[in-house]
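Subject: for your reference before the review

Hello V.,

The reviewers asked for a structural picture of the protein, and I figured it would be easier to keep everything in one thread rather than splitting it across files. Below is the amino acid sequence we used in the manuscript, unchanged from the supplementary table.
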Amino acid sequence: MRNIGISAHIDSGKTTLTERILFYTGKILEMHEVKGKDGVGATMDSMELEREKGITIQSAATYATWQDYQLNIIDTPGHVDFTIEVERALRVLDGAILVICGVAGVQSQTFTVDRQMRRYNVPRLIFINKLDRVGAEPWRVIENLKKKLNISIAALQVPIGLEHVLQGVVDIVTKKAYYFDGEKGSNVTIGEIPESLIDLVNQKREELISQIIDIDDQLAEIVFINERQPTPEELKAAIRRSTLALKFSPVLMGSAYKNKGVQPLLDAVIDYLPNPNEKDNYAIDLENKDSKIKLECNNSKPFVGLAFKLEEGRFGQLTYIRVYQGILSKGSIIQNVTNGRKIKVPRLCRMHANNMEDIELIGAGEICAVFGVDCHSGTTFTDGQIKCSMLSMHVPEPVISLAITTDSKKQNMNFIKALQRFQKEDPTFKVFLDPESSETIISGMGELHLEIYAERMRREYGIPVTTGKPQVAYRETITSKVTNEIKF
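And here is what came back from the structure prediction:
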């Protein structure tokens, strides 16, 4: 099993990449594009606003199977206004794919995502996307990443052609060329390295080995003591150890839009990213002076889970839970650690974007959704046998405020209800009443963030709302003594 997130700066191709992953794993039968001409849109952009604007607004969870391994995938937004979605996804995931545009390279939100991955110790793969575009230059992007993010990286692939002549990739580890034929790139042909690329592949392989040697002692022993070149299996094992130790990030290449390089990326997810047993997760022991305890990804242990995301679904509040220890089953009794309330789980689901599959139980290390569980984002649940609380996630402070009003007095109750719901779903969305101007003020991470919520109130609740600048109460006061003489 692999729990992975796909994160990047806006417009780097995350959702397009996720669409290809779902298609090649057999989860969906047809591929659709972001703002597609057929009017369908990408699978993970299920919200109407997302399809209209062509951006991801809410993170969406899905699952698929590749090489007999289950993949739990969360596609996250790239816009800075929705950074909390990335924050809480990376809080519960074991690995991630950082998507970089092959033309633009490192962009502003790349820095934010890099900080979030470091904060939660998430091992990553880097996928340089859009190599079919004019101006794509992967080697410049790699140097860009090293310099600006200060991370240890090296390419595992060499592209066969660039821009409009991109044909496939060469695997540096196995020294095999991969071509992606057919209308949708489903036919993967493995062949020999083109003669024009042999010298470059050998050079990049030496650079890769040289970099891993500085990190991994076992590979250094093979090269220096045994005085031989590592086999592909030995090199893969060294890359995996270095990646899991957060000392190295493998770089892969391709073009999701042109259906090239996605299948090798899936292989790399299996080869180099951790399974839930290989990631250390800790909770605070509430019975032992708040000391840390290590959680075991074991079904036989007492249940511990973290509610990391809330949504208002068709059947009430939908709560996304990552199970860290034990099992969660339909009808079981779980305890909210924050307030001590015990809750019966009425319905348990596995999510595929906005579609649900009812299940009876879920094991340790997996991600699920439950209905009928009233809680806030970041709440820890146990089965009552253990008293612990998961470490909290970082929530940034709002940076912009707007005044919001409704023109319909009949909709006042719905207006309040909508604001309360959005506050509960999104910790970065704040609402308060200005005591001086009596205006309702909404605060968030950016103008787009607040505009989206205002538009959702219009569409989902039918409330005519207006936003504008908050009124400022101007004051005059005596600040110092002044002597003045007036003659009549």
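For the response letter, the relevant points are probably these. The radius of gyration is 26 Å. The CA atoms of residues 436 and 476 lie 15 Å apart.

Happy to draft the paragraph if you're swamped.

O.
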